[in-house]
Amino acid sequence: MTRNRRTDLINGLLDLAAFLEAHPEVPASPHVVVHHFPEHDNDADMRAEIDQIAAHVGSRIDFEDSKYGHYATSVCFGPVEYRAVAVLTAARALHDAENSYRGCIQPDPMPTT
């Protein structure tokens, strides 16, 4: 992430916190996740970036993150989570295969009572 994008993210989070504190009538989620996805083309580079992040934040690798087996790590600050996730080649292929029929199958209409 470039310095300006990082600074913009940090300022946005601080602004959100100040806004929510100043407006208690506005509902807020009890849990927030900030995701980071590596911008690499291959699994080895993505895993290496996640490993490096895990070392920096002192967390473990969670390889069974989802049914797709994403390679991930996270650290929580109360109800706020920073989560770095590598969507590996096999996971992207499985997702693409599962979605290849999207829009081709129409369920039967629900019966009216």
Whole-number total of structural domains: 2
Span between N and C termini? Answer: 55 Å
Overall SS class: alpha+beta
Strand proportion, as a percent range, falls in 15-25%
Average pLDDT reading: 89
Poorly predicted ranges: none
Radius of gyration, Cα only, in angstroms? 19 Å
| Cα shape | flat
User: How would a crystallographer describe the biggest sheet?
Assistant: 3 strands, mixed
How are helices and strands ordered from N to C? Answer: HEHEEH
Helix content: 25-40%
- Can you list the strand order of the major beta sheet? 1-3-2
Oligomer: single chain
Continuous helix count: 3
Number of strands: 3
Q: Would you write up a description of this structure?
A:
With 113 residues, this protein is α+β, with helices and mostly antiparallel strands. It is 40% helix and 17% strand. The chain contains 3 helices and 3 strands. Strands 1-3-2 form a 3-stranded mixed sheet, covered by helices on one side. The model has no long low-confidence stretch (mean pLDDT 89).
Task: Indicate the topology.
Elements lengths: L2 H20 L9 E5 L6 H15 L13 E7 L2 E7 L2 H10 L15
Parallel strand pairs: 1-3
Antiparallel strand pairs: 2-3
Please give a handful of descriptors for the protein shown.
single chain; 113 residues; alpha+beta; 2 domains; three-stranded mixed sheet; 3 helices; 17% strand; flat
